Amino acid sequence: MKELIKSIINKLDLPTITYADVRFTSTDTQSIYFEKGDLKHFSTDLDSKAIGIRVLKNGCWGFAGTTILSDESIDKAIKRAITNATLGSKFRTKPAVFKPLKPIVETYNFLPLEDPFKMNDEEKINYLEKIAKKLVGNEKIVYSNVYCELYRQHKIFTNTEGTFVESTVYDSMPMMYVLASNGKETMCRTYPGHMNGHRGGFEVVRGTEMEKHTDEIIEQAIKLLDAPRITEERADIIIGGGHLALQLHESVGHATEADRILGKEISYAGKTFIKPEMIGNFKYGSELVNIYSDSRDEHGMGFHIVDDEGTPGATVDIIKKGILLDQQNSQESAAILGLQPTSNMLATHGDDIPLIRMTNFCLAPGKGSLQDLIANTENGYYIDFTKTWSIDDNRNNFQFTTEIGWKIENGELKHIVKEPTYFGITPEFWAACDGICGEEEWKYHGTFHCGKGEPGQAMHLSHGVAPARFKNIVCNVKA
């Protein structure tokens, strides 16, 4: 395959082409799904191959992808990519800028502790079945499921500047869910939550220790049926890491993707309230809020040697002491905004066009344990585990609901509350952050399903967060 990729890039090394790159991916996926204790779905898709070809000609990008790797199909893709750039350039008012990059030749292979694609399928099924069986039998639990998605991707990236990077990564995403009913309403609990994807093999699944938490989520789901809701119009809230990862994702991660400023995602993924003149001076949050993009941390699913246009992995401050400093960007958008490329140009598969995507997008830790933060909260709520969410196209006005919360009184957790819901305006919300737990509470949470682009792509990415407190947040629409 290496020789094929090299032969394609050689064909693209033409005087009329400013730059070109080629990506090859071979992707393996497996999903296992139990419903009400029974295996309902088991699928395996191995060695799904794709190639993508991208060129910059006359100041315009052209792209073509194919899943058919015959010489004829590849030659057609080369021709189509060049034609797309040639025709597209006729409609551009300003040429795209691509700064030369130092070539990188490197290989990266993540080695899982347990390779799920070498394990016996029966072993994986039996492991999850044991968990699924423990979720049934209680008359108040009317529905349950256990789900696991396993992933491996081998990728080769090369470009006309001499970069040649080969990598293999593994990701895993396990979760269980129960739904309780009293005949009047239903309440659910998940574990370990919706932002539950991690870099690694089947050791990730074992590491969640779902079996140990089955009784806990059953008990909590049932208790939620009779639990009160938050009645205060405003309250101090401490948000647990699993849900805070989604809050970070939606109200900061997507808002700071540079293509949204330039209007390239309006029709599907939305835009952003951020304007170019806000970069470098806008107060996005309190002084405690430090948010960065880090594609160099191997522990997260966003790690890479180079992104999908050859920019080396980087750690970039997006927000520093509450001030918006940078954007997640590409070579082209960085040049337009007067910024440096941040290594955020990525595609899901070889035949997908690269887009600006989050990698490891993180909220830096503060100080102290979760127990310390709760103890220092006189009155409020600790909430976690996403249930529903909504945010406007500008990434500015939002509403989130979690599955469960706990009332905090005089620094102690008291009774549970059902469906804690809070509302906010993005910069006002982050400005209200007055406490972030320390490194001992900081960890990665991730998703397999960050959607963007037309045609749509689902990206794997991670968010490093620790629980954080936000003061005087709207918890009732009457406020």
Features:
eight-stranded mixed beta sheet, 39% strand, globular, 479 residues, PmbA/TldD fold, seven-stranded mixed beta sheet, alpha+beta
Task: Describe the protein in words.
With 479 residues, this protein is α+β, with helices and mostly antiparallel strands. The protein has 2 domains: 2-182, 2-Layer Sandwich (PmbA/TldD fold), CATH 3.30.2290; 234-474, no CATH class. The protein has helices at 2-11, 71-88, 121-134, 202-207, 214-226, 241-253, 258-261, 331-337, 370-375, 426-431; strands spanning 19-35, 38-57, 60-66, 105-109, 141-159, 164-181, 186-191, 198-199, 234-239, 291-294, 315-320, 323-324, 345-346, 355-356, 361-363, 379-391, 397-409, 412-418, 421-425, 433-436, 443-452, 457-465, 468-474. Strands 1, 2, 3, 4, 5, 6, 7 and 8 form an 8-stranded mixed β-sheet that branches. Strands 9, 16, 17, 18, 19, 20 and 23 form a 7-stranded mixed β-sheet that branches. The longest helix has 18 residues, at 71-88. It is globular and about 70 Å long. The mean pLDDT is 97.
List the helices and strands and how they pair.
Elements (H helix, E strand, L loop, with lengths): L1 H10 L7 E17 L2 E20 L2 E7 L4 H18 L16 E5 L11 H14 L6 E19 L4 E18 L4 E6 L6 E2 L2 H6 L6 H13 L7 E6 L1 H13 L4 H4 L29 E4 L20 E6 L2 E2 L6 H7 L7 E2 L8 E2 L4 E3 L6 H6 L3 E13 L5 E13 L2 E7 L2 E5 H6 L1 E4 L6 E10 L4 E9 L2 E7 L5
